[in-house]
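Summary for the steering committee. The consortium agreed at its last meeting that each partner would contribute one worked example illustrating the joint modelling workflow. Our contribution is presented below. We chose a case with several input lines so that the handling of multiple components could be demonstrated. No manual editing was applied between input and output; the record is shown as generated.
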Amino acid sequence: EAGVAQSPRYKIIEKRQSVAFWCNPISGHATLYWYQQILGQGPKLLIQFQNNGVVDDSQLPKDRFSAERLKGVDSTLKIQPAKLEDSAVYLCASSQVRPLSTDTQYFGPGTRLTVL
Amino acid sequence: AQKVTQAQTEISVVEKEDVTLDCVYETRDTTYYLFWYKQPPSGELVFLIRRNSFDEQNEISGRYSWNFQKSTSSFNFTITASQVVDSAVYFCALSEATGTASKLTFGTGTRLQVTL
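What follows is the complete predicted structure of the assembly.
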């Protein structure tokens, strides 16, 4: 079974530029998560989708971050404009059907973003 | 509020030594799940174990074992006869269920360095 796929793996941009990340979850997983992991810290949830609907985006900086999951499968996370403090690894995860606490989240390899 | 504390920032051991990674959590929920993930240098978070709050039995999987003690709110992870391949950052995480959302709160991680 294929795992969670993410691209690109690395991205370097200058501040005020825009950037987009792509995620393809494990087949059949209805719930998709985006996390931000700053160096030396644990991942922090940015947004959670169930199918193509947003379940929780309370920690998403909505003035510059946006995410969509139009067909309930792939998802994109965008930052516009980027700031220096956005330098981090962006992790995508997915879990089965309903976002119950019994579900295990499986993570992709992440995208390492460097903002100069 | 949910909180996970991993007080050990970094641990160094020599191969074949046993090592225990500590995890202490805080939650008001009576039903919750605890997880351990491994993050090797490649960056991907690898799922190791999930434990629910009603199951306090210890678990062993090969060289890995977990000790869940509800009385002390701890979920410690022991690697027996450590190997160089065990070198990674290990995260403990806590899952709550809030309506349809399943938040995963991570600790700050413990970096394990195993040397020859």
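Chain B is about 0% helix and 50% strand. The first strand of chain B starts at residue 3 and ends at 5.
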